[in-house]
Amino acid sequence: PPPPVFFYTHNPAYALLSGLVGSEMCIRDRAYRIGSWFVAYLVMEQGEDKVYQFWETVDQDGFAQTFSQVFGKDYKRYVTDFEAWLQKPNSELLQILENLYSSKRL
Fold first, then answer.
1. Mind giving me the DSSP string for the chain?
2. Does residue 73 come out as left (phi exceeding 0), alpha (psi in the -120 to 50 range) or beta?
3. Interatomic CA distance for residues 96 and 53, integer angstroms
4. Spatial separation of the C-alpha atoms in residues 29 and 37, rounded to whole Å
5. Positive or negative CA dihedral for 28, 94, 79, 58?
6. Residue 37: Cβ within 10 Å count
7. pLDDT score of 14 more than 50
8. pLDDT recorded at residue 10
9. What is the CA radius of gyration of the chain?
10. Distance between CA 92 and CA 96 in Å, rounded?
11. Confidence (pLDDT) at 13
C-alpha cells in the first residue's frame, strides 16, 4: 500500500473532465502525486537550481546520463533513497513543504 502521506481523494469533476474513470484515474493521480513529492525531495536534497539545470540540459544527453551528471548519482539510486525517505512519519515528511515554502517567503 502507498505511504500515508498521499491524501487520495476522488474528485468526480476531475474524472469527468479528464475522461478517466475508476482505477485508471487512481493510478494517474497517484503517479502525479508521487512525482510531485519526488521533485520536492530532489529540491530538498539538491536545491531548486539543480532541478532547473536538469530540465534545461536533459535533451542533450538523455534522461539517465543527465540525471547522474546533475544530481551526482543515478536515478535508480535516488528512487531507492526516496522510497526509504517515504517511510518516515508524516510529521517529518510534511516538513519538506514547510522548507520549500519558507524559502519562497520574502
1. ---TTS-----HHHHHHHT--HHHHHHHHHHHHHHHHHHHHHHHHH-HHHHHHHHHHHHHH-HHHHHHHHHSS-HHHHHHHHHHHTTS-HHHHTHHHHHHHHHH--
2. beta
3. 21
4. 12
5. positive
6. 19
7. no
8. 45
9. 16
10. 8
11. 45
Contacts of 39 (CB under 8 A, 6+ apart): 51
**pLDDT of 22-71, one tens digit each?**
555 566 666 777 888 899 899 999 999 999 999 999 999 999 999 999 99
Q: What angle do CA 36, 92, 90 make, to 5 degrees?
A: 70
Residue position matching grid coordinates 517567503: 105
Residue recorded with cell 516538513:
95
Grid cell for residue 49: 537550481
